[in-house]
Amino acid sequence: xxxxxxxxxxxxxxxxxxxxxxxxxxxxxxxxxxxxxxxxxxxxxxxxxxxxxxxxxxxxxxxxxxxxxxxxxxxxxxxxxxxxxxxxxxxxxxxxxxxxxxxxxxxxxxxxxxxxxxxxxxxxxxxxxxxxxxxxxxxxxxxxxxxxxxxxxxxxxxxxxxxxxxxxxxxxxxxxxxxxxxxxxxxxxxxxxxxxxxxxxxxxxxxxxxxxxxxxxxxxxxxxxxxxxxxxxxxxxxxxxxxxxxxxxxxxxxxxxxxxxxxxxxxxxxxxxxxxxxxxxxxxxxxxxxxxxxxxxxxxxxxxxxxxxxxxxxxxxxxxxxxxxxxxxxxxxxxxxxxxxxxxxxxxxxxxxxxxxxxxxxxxxxxxxxxxxxxxxxxxxxxxxxxxxxxxxxxxxxxxxxxxxxxxxxxxxxxxxxxx
Length: 420
Description:
The protein is α+β, with helices and mostly antiparallel strands and 420 residues long. The protein has 3 domains: 3-124, Aminopeptidase (3-Layer(aba) Sandwich); 149-307, Aminopeptidase (3-Layer(aba) Sandwich), CATH 3.40.630; 315-407, SCP2 sterol-binding domain (Nonspecific Lipid-transfer Protein, Chain A, 2-Layer Sandwich). It contains 11 helices and 20 strands. An 8-stranded mixed sheet has the order 1-2-3-4-5-6-15-7. The longest helix has 16 residues, at 175-190. The model is unreliable at 8-13 (pLDDT under 50).
């Protein structure tokens, strides 16, 4: 889809100009990557042959060209994620940027509006992204859909309250041998969860790519009677101080998955078995990770939380049935959306739990909210009562909030540790 217009822009541009909104062509992708490298202050000059060159296809982009020059960009990977345990196709928004001389002139808004329409046509009714600044994306209907927990701890201070001996053990495994094992474990681990990406080969390549500052990743696979039950990907670094009485080395956990609590305990025991590690960092743990509930001293984790995934429902009527709900019930929802006019309506949601039917209606709404606010409700990050207490939902009465709290509840907290 291509949109071309001639306009009289602000004084920062020469007048008149021609603005074209379209996908980048293959020969323009190097310019695309140069723009995003500049916007995100990358120290490296993109080249046609580097490892990122083929990950984003031209047809997955929506760009603004001003008088033929690339001025603003947006990419959308076709991902599949788990929504409360069910597979759904989404648009993974990436590489959004505008050269400074073209900012605050409406280009990103036009890209977003056209991109949302194109994603809708492709059957991607939900868009999600890592936001460099949440303030930018809330203008376009995004709402916070997940958070992350970060730990920084001394492993010697992280014994479990009930320090049961794991049934199996961890073996450090070469990457080529470990990869198919990890893929099988991750697939089972991800299936019931909420917002985890179904990793394809290129996703595994990105996750296991050597750290940018040097070093390498190790894989520890936990097995019980030779059966793999969990794994951990991590790297270590030697401490710089010599002769200190306490361990100075550090460990960074990159990825962790487990099939039961025994495997989780076994992986944690593997971390604690590194006698020279004085500090462990895990920056992308789920907020419902069991460690704070299992540790003898939870404060040792130095736990922090922060915003993570931002979400935009590009087609409310089609998106709401994508996920299972936590029981039977019905709600009438008024959704306000000033960017995607096809969403700006009132909907009747009727669900048996596993399946849902959503239809436009003229009934009076039980709940009214912006499309931004729908994101944390839909993902399970926030309850309707919480959002109403924050002034973000208007409710017909308290019973409607209770119904929404029950229906939109999820088994697991929304969590997406993979960058894109």
